[in-house]
Amino acid sequence: MDSKSDILEKRGIQSIEVGYALLEALQQARRKLPLKLLAEAAGMPSSKAHLYLVSFMRLGLIVQDKVTGHYGLGPTAIRLGAAAIEQFNVVEVASEYLESLQANFEQTYSIAIWGNRGPTIIYKLDGRHRSPFAIKVGFVLPVLTSATGMVFFSYLPEAYWADLVAEEEALTPGALDEARSRAVEVRRHRLAMTEGKFQSGFFGISSPIFGMDANIQASITALGISAFENPASNTALKSAMRETAKKISLELGCPASLFSDDDL
């Protein structure tokens, strides 16, 4: 039987969870809401919501517009969000997932971001099979002939990659048209794969990581040796890469609605 202190603790935790629904509703709405709509979004009566709102306003988590009476997120919520962003590091989050992924699929894995010269490796986890072809942290990958590059090409606005791609197209005419066609499938499956395009004998499978604004922030890539396996038929690895990138994205604050098609 629970003690009195246990009961009080459980009630306190439940109360926080109930009240948080109001904060989450405002975050998802991305605008100030009147009491009735806010309460409905949080799944509670207006009278109950008002009690929570009074406390949240005292803490600065919520503010009320003096003209419209609508409620929005306050300065304390903004400071908490900014602090969370400062403390959140994509490598710190993603590297733990890649270590778990490597326990089941013994590939080499990397994390890349878009730098001023294109897709740039910022983290690498070596696999069991060593090779002469070594990608190091700081290495800049081509856009059109690497799986990592294709992910960024498929999701970034053209202004980001236009100049870099023009240089690559000059060296390999027709590569841009091919990439545009492939980008449709990359966006559909959230997965890019190349084999022998960037380096003969190697394959890459890459998936995008999205941030809280639903835009691409980084990518994770599995690099393997083609002689050891057929990447095209390795559906388990491709599925695991997609799911891992999704989990990282959600932990980084990406809206779950971005992945709604996964259940279809």
Task: Please provide a written account of the structure.
- The chain is an alpha+beta fold and 264 residues long.
- It has 2 domains: 4-85, Winged helix-like DNA-binding domain superfamily/Winged helix DNA-binding domain (Arc Repressor Mutant, subunit A); 89-263, Beta-Lactamase, CATH 3.30.450.40.
- Helix content is 50%, strand content 17%.
- The chain contains 9 helices and 7 strands; from the N terminus they run αααββααββαααβββα.
- The chain has helices at 4-29, 35-42, 46-59, 75-87, 90-104, 147-155, 158-171, 175-189, 235-251, and strands at residues 62-64, 71-73, 108-115, 118-125, 192-195, 202-210, 216-225.
- A 5-stranded antiparallel sheet has the order 4-3-7-6-5, sandwiched between helices.
- β6 and β7 (216-225) form a beta hairpin.
- α1 (4-29) crosses α2, α2 (35-42) packs across α3 and α6 packs across α8 (175-189).
- The radius of gyration is 23 Å and the shape is elongated.
Topology:
Blueprint: H1 4-29, H2 35-42, H3 46-59, E1 62-64, E2 71-73, H4 75-87, H5 90-104, E3 108-115, E4 118-125, H6 147-155, H7 158-171, H8 175-189, E5 192-195, E6 202-210, E7 216-225, H9 235-251
Antiparallel strand pairs: 1-2, 3-4, 3-7, 5-6, 6-7
Helix pairs in contact: 1-2, 2-3, 5-9, 6-8
What distinguishing features does this structure have?
264 residues; alpha+beta; Arc Repressor Mutant, subunit A; Beta-Lactamase; 2 domains; five-stranded antiparallel sheet; 9 helices; 17% strand
